[in-house]
Specification:
The structure holds two protein chains of two kinds.
Chain A lengths: L9 E8 L10 H16 L8 E5 L10 H9 L5 E5 L5 H14 L6 E7 L12 H6 L6 H16 L4 H16 L14 H5 L3 E3 L2 E2 L9 E9 H7 L5 E10 L15 H12 L9 E2 L5 H11 L7 H7 L15 H5 L9 H10 L13 E8 L9 E9 L1
Parallel strand pairs in A: 2-3, 2-4, 9-10
Antiparallel strand pairs in A: 1-7, 4-7, 5-6, 8-11, 10-11
Helix pairs in contact in A: 6-11, 9-10
Chain B lengths: L18 H8 L4 E5 L4 E3 L15 E4 L3 E10 L12 E8 L4 E5 L13 E10 L2 E8 L2
Antiparallel strand pairs in B: 1-2, 1-3, 4-5, 4-7, 5-6, 7-8
The chains are: A alpha/beta, B mainly beta.
């Protein structure tokens, strides 16, 4: 299988992250500026060293059809390659692959991949098509309602143990407690009983199955391994495989809604990397809902279909365990800064690979799998599935 | 918890693609797009057939009979449904081979189950607009 990332000629050389906060009152630009200043400081680069920019279109700026221009202008970037990706939470892992392809093609050499969103301060998104005509008038509670439908169907086909989801919630919360970038209100320990007793939103989905929206931003810098070496950077990680699938099963009018694009993109990314799931030292899945992580574990191949509950209950998923999962709390316990949430798992993976995760450091990890999920289509499972495998350089 | 202020229930804005569908719903008829070449229906209404990529779609009236594929009871209401919670939403597979989603009326949470027979019914959004919903087909 063709893998343009196989020879490790692309490197991620640093990260920046802004603390998640609710209703900051600040602009998306200000968050983007803070994340950019951080990653520039981390790498020792200046704005004039950046010649490419990739970003995601956040709901807080979705009315601006010149978003890339405005953002790059605000950040003082003159770029020969510029990209806004709009496949939701799959956009930022997607941008790593897009930036790598642009760099390999010679359009640019050093890309700032920046995600900023302030949906709890401002929301101007407006989706038409099926959403305004066939979703909103039904009274379904948005994504929690859609995942309520998915969970009941999963329970009809397989065995779902809520204690397993509770264990995952607690493991991530333990990460958020020691993650200074998590929403402050979420940095309190919780128990499996807290999960089981949480208020229902849309049955059988509970409040603690879900993310809490917030404002935030994060950034990474991607360049060639050759330039990274010349710069003498202190740390680097190579993206070594990437697969993405959008509108999985769109032709099917009666699809199995427990199945997602990860059933294709997951095994494909592993095959590109020449790896099995045993070679993945830590898993940083996109986590809008706990059940989404379980579906990914099954469909990427960490366990069999329908075995997610047993797998979670029998596996140590803490930082020192067999498969550490979302060690910084993920979005469910650190907060979901809108579509900038799609990169916080990559930031956490880099922090771990670079040995900078302090109290929650995974012992000497060399590989990480990060994923992205985008959009809830009409009575289907999510629309975009992205799988990115990183290796310490 | 203080009762949430009731906001208007969102009503669809018909487009040039969906106008025939909503016109039919307002006459209590349910029409689906049908691709004669693929011999398949599709939902939601689109500008081409997802089966063949052709703009050969015909509108056909269908039975409105189906079975529950999945369901969820909404406990925290969506915009425009404040005070109506809890209420059931069902994903329904119609006999014609498409899946729809809407409110499930005249059914309690204890009675709903995957596979149960349902049929379409109608739901007034306001004086100008009907919406489709489901109820048990007993």
């Amino acid at each position: 299988m063709k893998n343009p990332l196989a020879n490790k000629d692309i490197a991620i050389i640093g990260y920046g992250e802004v603390k998640n906060v609710r209703r900051s009152g600040r602009t998306t630009y200000d968050f983007a500026a803070e994340a950019t200043a951080q990653v520039l400081e981390y790498t020792g680069l200046g704005t004039k060293d950046i010649d490419g920019m990739a970003t995601v279109l956040p709901s807080s700026e979705a009315g601006n059809n010149f978003w890339s221009n405005y953002l790059g202008d605000h950040l003082g970037l003159q770029t020969s390659w510029t990209q806004t990706t709009d496949i939701g939470g799959a956009s930022m892992p997607g941008n790593v692959a897009r930036a790598a392809a642009a760099i390999q093609s010679g359009y640019c050499e050093t890309v700032l991949s920046i995600a900023a969103a302030t949906p709890t301060t401002r929301r101007v998104d407006d989706q038409r098509s099926y959403r305004s005509e066939f979703r909103n008038p039904t009274g379904i509670q948005g994504p929690p309602g859609a995942f309520g439908l998915i969970m009941h169907r999963y329970m009809h086909q397989y065995d779902l143990k809520f204690e397993a989801l509770g264990k995952l919630a607690v493991a991530q919360r333990n990460g958020a407690v020691v993650n200074e970038y998590a929403v402050e209100g979420l940095r309190k320990p919780m128990t499996v009983d807290d999960y089981l007793n949480a208020r229902m939103v849309s049955t059988p989905l509970r409040l603690l199955d879900s993310v809490m929206p917030c404002d935030g931003a994060n950034a990474i810098i991607i360049t060639t391994t050759e330039r990274a070496k010349k710069l003498g950077v202190k740390n680097m990680a190579h993206p070594i495989a990437y697969s993405e699938l959008t509108n999985f099963n769109v032709h099917e009018q009666l699809p199995d809604i427990t199945e997602t694009g990860f059933s294709i993109a997951g095994p494909q990314a592993l095959e590109k990397a020449g790896m099995s799931t045993d070679d993945i030292d830590m898993f940083h899945p996109y986590d809008d809902f706990l059940i989404a992580e379980m579906l990914q574990l099954e469909q990427i191949g960490f366990c069999g279909r329908g075995e997610g509950s047993e797998y979670l209950l029998s596996t140590d998923i803490s930082p020192t365990g067999k498969l550490p999962i979302n060690t910084g709390g993920g979005q469910i316990s650190a907060g979901q800064p809108g579509l900038a949430g799609g990169q916080i798992n990559i930031i956490e993976a880099l922090r771990q690979l670079f040995g900078e995760a302090t109290d929650r450091q995974v012992p000497n990890p060399s590989t990480a799998m990060c994923t992205g999920i985008g959009v809830i289509p009409y009575v289907r499972n999510w629309g975009s599935s992205a799988v990115l495998i990183l290796e310490r350089g | 918890m203080a009762e949430r202020e009731k906001r208007p229930r969102p009503a669809p804005t018909p487009t040039n693609i969906t106008q025939p569908f909503w016109d039919a719903v307002n006459e209590h008829k349910f029409m689906l797009q049908y691709d004669p070449e693929a011999d398949k229906y599709q939902f939601y209404p689109r500008g081409l057939s997802v089966h063949t990529g052709k703009r050969n779609l015909e509108w056909r009236e269908v039975t409105g009979k189906g079975t529950v594929y999945s369901y969820t009871e909404t406990v925290i209401p969506a915009r425009g449904f404040e005070g109506e919670e809890p209420y059931l939403i069902a994903a329904v597979d119609l006999e014609e081979g498409v899946r729809l989603m809407s409110l499930l009326h005249n059914c309690s949470t204890d009675d709903v189950e995957i596979g149960m027979a349902v049929k379409l019914c109608w739901d007034k959004i306001d004086d100008d607009f009907e919406y489709f919903a489901f109820e048990p087909d007993r």
